[in-house]
Amino acid sequence: MKKQSENRGENFIPLCLLCAHQPQPCDGVALQMTFLFFFSRPSRVRASKIAIAHFHEHAIGGSRNRPEVIQNPDSWIVKVICTLCVRKHSLDSCSDYFSKTLTSSIAFEVVRGLNNPELALKFFQFSRLNLNLCHSPRTYSILLRSLCEMGLHESAKSVYDCMNVDGHSPDASVLGFLVSSAANAGKFKIARTWIDGVEFSLIVYNKLLNQLVRGNQVDEAVSFFREKMGLHRGCDTCSFNILIRGLCRIEKVDKAFELFNEMRSFGCSPDVITHNTLINGFCRVNEVDRGHDLLQELLSKNELSPDVVTYTSIISGYCKLGEMEKASVLFNKMIVAGIKANAFTFNALINGFGKAGDMVSAEHMYDKMLLHGCPPDIITFTSLIDGHCRTGQVDRSLKLWHELNAKNLSPNEYTFAILINALCKENRLHEARGFLRDLRWRQIVPQPFMYNPVIDGFCKAGNVDEANVILAEMEEKRCKPDKITFTILIIGHCMKGRMSEAIGIFHRMLETGCAPDSITMASLLPFLLKAGMPNEAYRIMRIASEDFNLCLKSLKRNVPLRTNTDIPVAV
Length: 571
Hints:
Layout: H1 2-9, H2 15-19, H3 28-39, H4 49-60, H5 75-86, H6 95-101, H7 104-114, H8 117-129, H9 137-149, H10 153-165, H11 172-184, H12 188-195, H13 202-214, H14 218-229, H15 237-249, H16 253-262, H17 272-284, H18 288-301, H19 308-320, H20 324-336, H21 343-355, H22 359-371, H23 378-390, H24 394-406, H25 413-425, H26 429-439, H27 448-460, H28 464-476, H29 483-495, H30 499-511, H31 518-530, H32 534-547, H33 553-556, E1 561-562, E2 568-569
Helix pairs in contact: 4-5, 5-7, 7-8, 7-9, 9-10, 9-11, 11-12, 11-13, 13-14, 13-15, 14-15, 15-16, 15-17, 16-17, 17-18, 17-19, 18-19, 19-20, 19-21, 20-21, 21-22, 21-23, 22-23, 23-24, 23-25, 25-26, 25-27, 26-27, 27-28, 27-29, 28-29, 29-30, 29-31, 31-32
């Protein structure tokens, strides 16, 4: 018994030493001493329970409560490694021990327990390169997922390459997740490398197609479809719809139509979404008759029923072209077919009639809208207001303004801009000024085109001081003046003979990063010459020609070139 006790004492640390105060593990020597608590007798895990609690106490702070004792024989080393990684200790000093103790199952628990992809990656790299540990597919899978979830797709790609070197392959669900994640993040090159040589479900392929289209890489999406999906007939109607939508968005409707005609050769049938997407694409490039022909073809086959989106796309296309008779006929056919028009349909027709100056028909369509139980929205009222302003009926537009406010509809920036511009054209500047004041209490991001007509009106009326006040209000609302704003103010100050202020506005224009154009220069330079300021005219012309590459040949004949600051030289 005594001999046995002596043998145990050779590599057993007395419990009193374990419980004694030890330096913090941030000290290198103290860290190794702490490991002695664990490593002196690894076969007697039960005796190390107190040591584990002791180590954790020093790792996270001595004054805290001791954690629950770990029961799993391997869990203590998982806990130690996780703590070392979190505390950013180097694992190199423990390489000898880890090389004998660390297994792939323990490594998996460490990666899972860290709950931090970057720390997990560092541990993975250390254990693989320094300890030659061959990680299990489970470790690779959880690490790949966590890296992608954090957006670290380049790191995931390097881990994936290591996985291949180690002779492992992720299962279909993991690889599908990786491809979708990379595609969602716009990392299409990485997604393509994961796809090569692997068969995926259609859901994964279509996700990648959709992300390519959303990332404005439509040609790449079509190439991928031809190369990977179409080659093996691994596609469906959804695949074609994604590509047709993308091609129509970039106005390549002929290529979209080619794909549409190829669908049946791939065993796919176009659905209503396919037809609606292509019809809308035709209408966007003003080929409305082609869209109408496709509708007629759809009706003649009796395979699918067009819906309100189908008809509204063509009606809206005709309205934009000003072909209101065709739009009206198609609208009536839609109603006869039992398809209920929606707000988009009525708004397109009301706006079309307004643009054409036919406010009787626009008001009649508005009445039909109410009769069909379709509530008007701010687009409806803005279209009516615009139509009446175009026909000079500003007072009727103001009545509609009060009506929309009574209905608790919020006007948008275009509603304001249309009324402000119309009032300024009728020289009703103070009423237009009132609308600008109203803007201060609205949740609208103001735009320069809302202020410019009023500033122009006051400048033409000779009241440049009020124009300057409006400019200050404009900037107070964080609305950045544009080229038109500055040009209006420059002309206004020149007309009042306030040349120094006009020059100041020009330089302020440059300071805000707004480049002058030929209209700005053609307005300012003649005033400077008439005011007897050729030096300033020359300096400003040189700024415009050298810094902004403006071609001012017609003005150079009138502006003297300077070879000496005192003596002008005529050309």
